[in-house]
Amino acid sequence: MQIFTCPFCGPRDEREFHFAAEAGKTRPDTTRQIDPETWATYLHAQRNDKGRTREVWMHLPCSELFLMERDSVTMEVFSTHPLRKEPQ
Amino acid sequence: MTLRLPTGGLIDRSKPLTFTFDGKPHTGYAGDTIASALLASGTRILGRSFKYHRPRGLWGAWVDEPNAIMNVTLDGHEFPNCLATTTYLQGGMAARAVNTWPSARFDMKAGLDLFHRWFAAGFYYKTFMWPDWHLFEPLIRRMAGLGAVSPDHLDTYTSDQTHDRCDTLVIGGGPAGLAAAEAAAQSGQDTLLIDDHAQLGGTAHQLPQIDATPTADWIAQRQSAIEAAGGRILTHTTAFGIYDHGLVGLAQNGPFGTAPRLIRLRAARIILATGAIDRPLTFANNDRPGIMAVAAAAEYLARYATLPGRQIALLANTPQADTLAAQLTQAGAQVTHVDPAQSPLSARGGKRLKALQAGDRTHPADTILASGGLTPLVHLWRHAGGSLAWCDRRNAFLPGTPPDNMTATGAANGSFETDEALEHARATGQNTPAKRPDPKHHITPHWPAPGSKGRQWIDFQHDVTLKDVELAARENYTSVEHLKRYTTLGMASDQGKTSNMPGLAAMAAIQGRPIPEVGTTTFRPPFVPVPIEMYHGAHTKQLWNPLKRLALEPQHRAAGAALGEYGGWLRPGWYGKGDPVQQAQTEALMARQTAAIFDASPLGKIEVMGPEAEAFVNFIYYNTIATLKPGKIRYGFMLTEGGAVFDDGVIARLDANRFVISCSSSHVDSVRTHLEAWRQDGNDPDRIFIHDTTQHWATLTVTGPRARAILDTLDLDTDDFPHMSLRETSWQDTPLRLARVSFTGDTSFELSIRASKAPALWSALLDAAKPLDAGPIGVEALSILRAEKGFLMIGKDTDGETMPHDLGFTAPRQKKSTPFVGDRSLHTDKANAPDRKQLVGLTVPAGAPPLPTGAHVVTDDEIPRSLGYVTSSYLSPTLGRPIALALLENGTDRMGDTITAWHLGETRQATVTAPCALDPEGARLDA
Question: Which of A20, A29, A31 sits opposite B677 (nearest CB)?
Answer without folding.
Answer: A20
